[in-house]
Amino acid sequence: MTKESFNTYSYLLDRTNRRIKQFAQKKFKEESFDITVDQWLVLKSLNQENDQNQSELAEQIGKDNPTLTRIIDLLCKKELVERRQLPSDRRCFTIHLTDKGKQKMEEWAPKVAEIRMKAWENLTEKDYEDLKRILNTIYQSLEI
Amino acid sequence: MTKESFNTYSYLLDRTNRRIKQFAQKKFKEESFDITVDQWLVLKSLNQENDQNQSELAEQIGKDNPTLTRIIDLLCKKELVERRQLPSDRRCFTIHLTDKGKQKMEEWAPKVAEIRMKAWENLTEKDYEDLKRILNTIYQSLEI
DNA sequence: TAACAATAATTAGTACAACAAATATATAAG
DNA sequence: CTTATATATTTGTTGTACTAATTATTGTTA
């Protein structure tokens, strides 16, 4: 195959990625979930393991530290999480999912799972496995 | 398969998409291409068909109009493109790839093709076809 | 212990994304 | 012709991404 014929994957990936976010965001709005899709990722990670510090959390959700700082700022304002000083290392904060945050998660999680499923209604389990494998292979090939 | 097992694709897609951009942007920097990846998309589209108006161009590269307006602003500053008033419809500009822009494209295009190929070095042609099919299916399933 | 390096988080600056609203112009309907 | 509607683009706002620089703290080593 020629090089030129490979030239559209980044476009397809980018626009599909954007549409997935748009779709989820639109549903969030319809359901009056007052968060963005990226904020959701943070809450979900904390719901699985609470009180991570920011670096761990950034690693978990694959965002960099400055971006995470701002997402945490926004979630703090909404009182869904709070920063807690770690006495043993005063450089760190642990991010704590509050009771309000936990309550919202219980309310939102099943609906988010529904929303996420929509993308797969015309695809098979094998497609899902293939997509994961292909994306991970690309990710590793472009190690930076 | 349970709903829960489908819950990571958006994360994988997002991080792979980000890495593809990061990788290309890093190479652009190394080669002293003084543009961003998104600006490249615009130039590439104009190189294939010059003098599109902004709406056509936005459609071509899958971005919305406000985003494109700002990308065009930046490309104008670099004198790679220029806005030309269309006398027949004074609402429109056609975006013209300048001589300087064309010259840069000749210089850059082969190297960008190389950079783009890197993602596929551990994958097959069938993987490429599968990825395209899966992404397009998702895109269409989430019609908004 | 003092100097140096490493780590956690933040801040600042620029770019892009999404959305809503505004402006200007063109076209259609009455 | 006038009103209404549609189209092309821009502007404003909020949120995310990346880089580099900064602050505060901790760890290492001479």
UniProtKB/TrEMBL annotation, chains A, B:
Q: Which Pfam family name is an example for this entry?
A: MarR
Whether Transcription counts among this entry's keywords is yes
**Keyword Coiled coil set for record:** no
User: Mind telling me which SUPFAM superfamilies this protein's record contains?
Assistant: Winged helix' DNA-binding domain
Arranged from A to Z, the UniProt key words for this protein are: DNA-binding, Transcription, Transcription regulation
Q: Which GO terms describe its molecular function?
A: DNA binding; DNA-binding transcription factor activity
The record's annotation in SMART domains points to: HTH_MARR (SM00347)
HTH marR-type domain location is: 6-140
- The leader peptide range reads none
Q: What is this protein called?
A: MarR family transcriptional regulator
Identify the species of origin. Answer: Pedobacter puniceum
